[in-house]
Write a structure and sequence with these properties.
Elements lengths: L3 H9 L5 E5 L2 E6 L2 E7 L4 E5 L2 H10 L4 E3 L2 H5 L2 E5 L5 H15 L11
Antiparallel strand pairs: 1-2, 2-3, 3-4, 4-6, 5-6
Helix pairs in contact: 1-4
Length: 112
Amino acid sequence: MASSEQIRCLALDLPGAVEQDHHGFPSYRVAGRIFATVRADRARLMVKLDPEDQSNLCNAYPETIAPVAGYWGRKGSTFVAYDRIDEALAAMLLRLAWSGVSPKSRPAPNGR
């Protein structure tokens, strides 16, 4: 089971990642673009995924991963019940989200 502090550490370990407030909740960004947000009060992580990755992960973890409703979900925003996943899956989700918004000239994080 992942925790909000583990999510924070994993996100900030990614190259160029910074933490900033987003409507009262922590967001993780690279080059000014959000790749993840956390709602600790709901044990919910939002990651910005590629549509194909989003579909595959939602199908693989239907009780845990789901697209955000409406426009944002169609653009890849994906909710994850992080208290139902392990640290390895959290790290993978964050790497996928980071890689989708990071500048293409930036090197990929280790383990990718």
